[in-house]
Amino acid sequence: MNISSIVVQTNPTYTDEVVEILKAADFCDYHFHDEKGRIIVTIEGEGVEEEIPKLVKIQEMDHVISADMSFAFSEDELNAERDKLELVGNDIPQWLNDENATKRDIKYNGDLKDRF
Questions:
Q1: Residue 5 belongs to what H/E stretch?
Q2: What is the pLDDT of residue 88?
Q3: What are residue 29's DSSP bridge partners?
Q4: CA 24 to CA 21: how far, in whole Å?
Q5: CA–CA distance from 99 to each of 92, 103, 104, 110 (Å)?
Q6: Please, are residues 35 and 73 in contact by the beta-carbon 8 Å criterion?
């Protein structure tokens, strides 16, 4: 399941009209708008393939200047990353769980040649 936030920009003259259309739409959820014509909605889908057509519907609405994805959450991607952490297991340095750890506890194995 994916959830993405969309920032919709409209001319402030038409904000209330666009907000009402978005509130009535069955493909997004309205959350907030301001006096500058910015509107925040979210869309959901099993994947990006389901979300893009919903984004396009918003972009094609009358009085919408722009509508772009701002933030996205993908449950499948999150679970895949969690699975990777499970595979790593005990390879995670102990200092990561130490409340008293400092930046000096980090062992860096990279190239510092060009750091300055």
A1: strand 2-10
A2: 62
A3: 42
A4: 5
A5: 15, 12, 13, 25
A6: no
For residues 107, 111, 113 and 114, what is the CA-based torsion angle, rounded to 10 degrees? Answer: -100
Q: How long is the chain?
A: 116
Count CA atoms closer than 13 A to 82's CA, side-chain side.
6
Tokens, residue 9:
């920009």
How far apart, in Å, are the Cα atoms of 77 and each of 14, 42, 72, 81?
A: 37, 18, 11, 6
Asked if 6 and 69 count as a contact pair (C-beta separation under 8 A), the reply is: yes
**Nearest CA-CA partner of 29 in 66, 3, 61, 60:** 3
Listed residue (13, 18, 14) closest to 30, CA to CA: 18
Q: Which residue has the tokens 């990777």?
A: 84
pLDDT in tens, 14-65: 999 999 999 999 999 999 999 999 999 999 998 888 999 999 999 999 999 9
Q: Residue 54 carries which DSSP code? A: H
Q: Is the CB of residue 3 less than 8 Å from the CB of residue 69? A: no
